[in-house]
Structures are given as C-alpha cells and as structure tokens.
C-alpha cells in the first residue's frame, strides 16, 4: 500500500527447532534463499568453545590449501572457469572426500615444486660455472702474456734477480686460486676488504657476465661478476675463503690447466642439456596437474565458503539436550514465513520434523531491544 512505501517489511522473531542430523542441510537451504537473520543465542561463549569449532578449523585448513592452489594456478597463467550457477554447500558426507582430494593435491604440487626448484638451482649452478670457466680462461691467458701491469704476479714483492723467484716462493709458499661469482653491487666493497685483510698478497681480476642470472638464494635477477683471486700460502687462502663467505660468493673449482678446463666445459654442456630436458618434462607435468585442478577450483572455493558459513550459523544456535535438537532464533519478514517453512522442509533429508514458533506476532519497525529492523 501507499503507506508502506518508506517502511520496511513487517518482521517477526521466530524460533526454529532443527532436529539433530538435518540441521546442516536446513541452514544450507536457508542460506541459499537469504530470507532470515540469525540471532546469537550464545553471546557469553567464546568462539573457541562453541559446538562446531573443529568443523570450522577443517574449513580453514581447506581454505589454506585452496589459497596455495590458486596461487600456483595463477603463477602458471591458467584461467579458472566459473560455473553458470553457484554450487551448493557439499553434504557432510562429502567433506572428508574433498579434504582428502585437496591434501593429496597439495602434497603432489609441493613435491613437484621442490623437484623443480632443485633442478633450477642445479641448472643455475652449472650455468654460473660455465660462465666462470670461460671468463677466467681469459684472465689466465692475459696474465701469462703480461699484457699490462694489472696482471703482473705480485709486483709489490721483491724478485731475486738471479733465480727469478719471489721471496714468497723461496719460503716455500704455494700459489693458489679462488674463483667464483659475486653480485655486481658487492664488488667494490669486496675488493676493498681483500686489500685490507690480505695486505696486497692477493691479485683480484674480475669481469661482468653478459647474461643476467637469478640469485641462487633469493631468485632475484641481477648482474653478476666472475672473479679470480690469486694468493700465496694457506694462511692467506683461508682469509680469502672467509671473505668470500661473508660476501655470499658462489665459489667453483678452478681447473689446473686448459685441457682440464675444456673437459669440464664439455661435461657441463652435456649436463645442462640433460637438466633442461628433465626440467621441461617436470614443468609439463606440473601444468597438467594444475590444469586438472583448475577445473574444480571454483566449485571448491564456493563450497568451502558456504560450508564455513553454515557452521558459523550453527554456532549461533543453542542445543536442547532434552529433545536433542538445535534451537535457532531468526528475524524473518512475515510475508516470507511460508518460504521459510518450505526451505526447512526441503533441507530435511530423513523426514525430520521442523517446528517454527513465532516469538512475537509482528514487529513492523522495531526489534525487542528497540533497534530498527529492515530486510
């Protein structure tokens, strides 16, 4: 009527009696209709002491797995198809089956991801080693041809004019090498530290790698530098090793001669090819698993969300020990009472009887505590 244009629907506060065993399905039906607002009949009970806490925890565990799954699907740039109609909450008997499916999927994806990460790390190490061998070969050849003062072997040390040996050689100190890669941004500080600690008893040569490489630890793409450090004696060698550790250098064995270097390079080339093949197969398998999972992802997300909402509503109800049923109190438009009864009947799976008892005849504008009620 004209007088009701600016007024809400007439409301009533009703009490629902839900027989044990069918309460889940009844709340599911009510949720799909969206007719009522539930009152909390356990206001003094904390959320951790309510009746359906374990079921909500199970839903949250499923949400965690689904979050991981959706991130992996998104990372693989796979689209998640949505259904035309929103799926219903799964019946309780199917919940464990969905949980097992998700746990199995998480274990499989985690294992494949670990294997893929290990393969990628190995591939990166072999790639770094290859770059190091190629660049340090140029250092050695440049030094041997004495192309410039920067490649002279310890120019600050006195050389015996008769024997052509340095003082360190006469003392029996052995020439050693440390080679590897370091991030470009750390080179200057690294060079200063070597000079201060080793007092000039080392020679550092370095050159930037043309290719941008991912960091072994962080995965960030950055510029790397190959270095070769020559040093006299084990004590200096230990200091060099510690400095390299401090600056998170990736060290690789330095070949004795060109022949050994060529053998290692050939071996690395073969291993890199093999690793690439295995990595491609692993990525194909991972994509197949994610593609299959993406077909059910939308359904699982909606089902778990609805299921969790149902248990939250059931936690608002009180339990009648005598009649072994749940009691709920809801605000409902008077005009929808018939639909409310129909939803409860629809939700009954074992011919349980549901009772609706109005607590007040009609409350057009106000609820019991004086607050305005609107649908």
Automatic annotation (TrEMBL):
An example Gene Ontology biological process: vacuolar acidification
Q: Which InterPro entries match?
A: V-ATPase_116kDa_su
Q: Where in the cell is it found?
A: Membrane
Give a GO cellular-component term.
Answer: plasma membrane
User: How does the UniProt record describe the way this protein sits in the membrane?
Assistant: Multi-pass membrane protein
Q: Which UniProt key words apply to this protein? A: Coiled coil, Hydrogen ion transport, Ion transport, Membrane, Transmembrane, Transmembrane helix, Transport
Q: Which Pfam family, any one, appears in the UniProt record? A: V_ATPase_I
Which superkingdom? Eukaryota
- Single annotated GO MF: ATPase binding
What start-end ranges are recorded for coiled-coil regions in this protein?
A: 95-129
Family listed: Belongs to the V-ATPase 116 kDa subunit family.
Protein task: Essential component of the vacuolar proton pump (V-ATPase), a multimeric enzyme that catalyzes the translocation of protons across the membranes. Required for assembly and activity of the V-ATPase.
The protein here is known as V-type proton ATPase subunit a
Q: Which organism is it from?
A: Sphaeramia orbicularis (orbiculate cardinalfish)
UniProt gene name: atp6v0a2a
């Amino acid at each position: 009527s004209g007088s009701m244009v600016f007024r809400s629907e007439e409301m009533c506060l009703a009490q629902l009696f839900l027989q044990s065993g069918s309460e889940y399905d009844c709340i599911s039906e009510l949720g799909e209709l969206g007719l009522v607002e539930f009152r909390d009949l356990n206001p003094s009970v904390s959320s951790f002491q309510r009746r359906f806490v374990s079921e909500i925890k199970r839903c949250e565990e499923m949400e965690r797995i689904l979050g991981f799954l959706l991130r992996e699907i998104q990372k693989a740039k796979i689209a998640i198809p949505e259904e035309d109609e929103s799926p219903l909450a799964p019946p309780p008997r199917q919940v464990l089956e969905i949980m097992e499916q998700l746990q199995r999927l998480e274990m499989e994806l985690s294992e494949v991801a670990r294997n893929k990460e290990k393969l990628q790390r190995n591939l990166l190490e072999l790639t770094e080693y290859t770059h190091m061998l190629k660049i340090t070969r140029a250092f050695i050849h440049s030094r041997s041809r004495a192309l410039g003062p920067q490649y002279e072997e310890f120019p600050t040390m006195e050389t015996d004019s008769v024997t052509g040996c340095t003082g360190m050689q006469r003392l029996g100190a052995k020439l050693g090498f440390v080679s590897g890669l370091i991030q470009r941004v750390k080179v200057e500080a690294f060079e200063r530290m070597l000079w201060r600690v080793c007092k000039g008893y080392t020679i550092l040569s370095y050159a930037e790698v043309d290719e941008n490489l991912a960091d072994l630890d962080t995965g960030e793409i950055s510029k790397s530098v190959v270095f070769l450090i020559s040093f006299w004696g084990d004590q200096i060698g230990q200091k060099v090793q510690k400095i390299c550790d401090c600056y998170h250098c990736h060290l690789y064995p330095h070949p004795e001669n060109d022949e050994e270097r060529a053998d290692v390079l050939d071996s690395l080339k073969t291993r890199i090819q093999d690793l690439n093949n295995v990595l491609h197969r692993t990525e194909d398998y991972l994509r197949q698993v994610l593609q299959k999972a993406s077909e059910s992802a939308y359904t699982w997300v909606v089902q778990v969300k609805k299921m969790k909402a149902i248990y939250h509503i059931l936690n608002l109800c009180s339990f009648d020990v005598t009649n072994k049923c749940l009691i709920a109190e809801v605000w409902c438009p008077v005009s929808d009472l018939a639909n409310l009864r129909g939803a409860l009947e629809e939700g009954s799976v074992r011919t349980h009887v549901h009772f609706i008892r109005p607590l007040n005849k009609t409350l057009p504008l106000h609820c019991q505590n004086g607050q305005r009620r609107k649908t």
